[in-house]
Amino acid sequence: MRLGRVELWTGRLFLIALMAFTILPFVSIFTTALHPSHTMPNGLEWPKEPQWGNFIEAFKVANMTKLLVSSTFIVLAVVPISLVISTMAGFAIGLLKIPGSRFLLLLFVFGLTLPLGGIIVPIYHLERALGIYNTRLAIVLPLIGLYMPFAVFWMRAHFVNMPSEISEAALVDGATTWDLFWNIHLPLARAPITSLGTLLSVWTWNQFLLALVLVEDPSQRTMAGALGAFQGHYATDIPLLCAGTILVLLPTLIIFVIFQRHIIEALIQGAVKG
């Protein structure tokens, strides 16, 4: 299908406008981070004397060394467990079509509609009763549960689109259900698993609300919790806050750039049947 010149240029202009709308806030944050501390920059104004030391100062003020360790621990605890559970559940619901699979899928879809603000209070009281409040476990366990609806739906979309001939040929050759999962379909699911792991890592790293409500010790929170260090009782240091924001976002941007090919491949694979 060939596009006309009008449609082609309309699409290009739309993409350019969308790209500018996405990039301009990051440019604004970056230029603001280079202004002197305790000042109020105007928009995209470039400072006369860029204060590159703001990034070092922000790192020290927020005590990001401990938060870096804490965030890494939380990501390594949440993401692998979420991937294992969601991959096996997606395989069972999408490919094996176990009894009640449609009902289970509806439950997971219903889970996508639950707002975090509406369930964080019950989570708070539950963790108080379990005695895990103010620990990293208070962040890890809720995140695993909150990620399941999206993660299972994501993996199910991959397995349900796999050609049935692959499974039938393996079963004829004497493969068990575990062989079918581990030796055949799991290697074929590398793209959606990698892309899902990337998304979950980014979301976990940038988690702020759960870390703020469920953990009182700042050193036990995620990197996003470091942004609260720049909020004073009467004023906020805007340049240092922007510098800290860039430091928090930088690892996730690097991860996304590295694995963007897998994310695009998984999206295309999920959009094309068979």
Distance, first to last CA = 21 Å
The overall number of domains is 1
Count of helices? Answer: 12
For the largest beta-sheet, the strand count, sense and barrel status come to:
none
Structural class: mainly alpha
Are there runs of 5+ residues with pLDDT below 50, and where?
none
Portion of residues within helices: over 70%
CATH class type: Mainly Alpha
How big is the Rg? Answer: 23 Å
Average pLDDT figure: 86
- At CATH level 3, the topology is MetI-like fold
Order of helices and strands: HHHHHHHHHHHH
CATH fourth-tier homologous superfamily? MetI-like
Number of strands: 0
Net shape: globular
CATH architecture: Orthogonal Bundle
Beta-strand residue fraction? under 5%
